[in-house]
Amino acid sequence: MGVKIFFLTLGLLLPAPLSAAEGSLPGQDLSLWWGLPFGGILLSLAFMPLFAAHIWENHYGKIALIWSLMTIFALINFFGFALTWQEVAQTFFHHYLPFIIIISALYTISGGIKIDIHSPGTPLINTALLGVGTFLAGWIGTTGAAMLFVRPLLHINDHRQMRVHHMIFFIFLVGNVGGILTPLGDPPLFLGFLNGVSFSWPLQKLGFDLILVAAPLLLLFYGVDSYFSWREGHSFRHRPIGVTLKGKYNGLLFIGVIGLVLMSGVWQSDISLNVAGISIELSNLLRDGGLMLLATASWLFTPSEIHKENHFSWEPLKEVAKLFFGIFMTVIPVISMLAAGREGALAPLISLVEING
User: Fold this and answer.
1) What's phi and psi for 278, nearest 5 deg?
2) Fewer CB within a 10 Å sphere, N or C end of the chain?
3) Cβ atoms of residues 241 and 117 within 8 Å
4) Tell me: the pLDDT tens digits for 175-203?
5) Element at 259 (helix H, strand E)
6) Domain ranges of the chain
7) Are 311 and 150 in contact (CB under 8 A)?
8) Are strands 243-246 and 114-117 parallel, antiparallel or unpaired?
9) Residue 263: CB partners within 8 Å, gap ≥ 6?
């Protein structure tokens, strides 16, 4: 009964649209209340792990589903099942599914590579490792780069007493900043690529910004790490560095991922497949199918000891899939409001980011 009352209350708060253009949501008629579920899931992601960690760890999937259902039920209530199904199916097949497939491929392939650095961590080695990880994050994804480089960083610094700053800068650089280099690095950039943005656009437009942000952070890290290393009495003298790379052939699979993504952006086929009323181009089907084959090949042919040494687990991928399903569903009306431009409820926000606004 409480759930029914909640959705009834939500329905009363959401003003009915004046008109619905056939085949699409009327973004110009949607009020800011439609952004409530999207804001709710983002706030849940930000604060529940801090203030309700136990509940979040055990029920994050259910929480994401609740926010999703709020959006879907409200859409059905005001626009009917047919239009809601079209919006949900289009979002699922054109955006969510390709996103999960490429994340899965990058995560699986990176999990098949093991980097062993045979040298204690010094400020210079640590900074170099962060720099390489930041660059590669744009090509193998921030998730893949994090999985690939976090354990070597922790391992070579296990003799250090002060290591908290290692993870802080790692999250800044490898987990975030490095992802802006290509559509493979960051989800929003990949979604932009799926909607027609050039593969090289991030590199051309954001490459200098990457240097502008990453270089000072790396210099700052080197200074902080040098200070703590000096306080702990560690020597800065040069030591021979040995690097062992296991699962090297997975690097070829990464090249295959890049090739498939580029193919889907360059080759526009007239052939398409109708799935649940949604048209999916042949080039996109081949890309997603190829990515799944590459991920499967990596999983099958990578020795199990590499996965064990990497502590490989599907749990992070499951978490991403559940949470991003909620994000993709709740953002549907928000995208429509943004598409309405200055005629929509988000006009003040749009005016702030428009070049001539």
Assistant:
1) -110, 130
2) N
3) yes
4) 999 999 999 888 888 888 888 888 889 98
5) helix 250-266
6) 117-246
7) no
8) antiparallel
9) 283, 286, 287
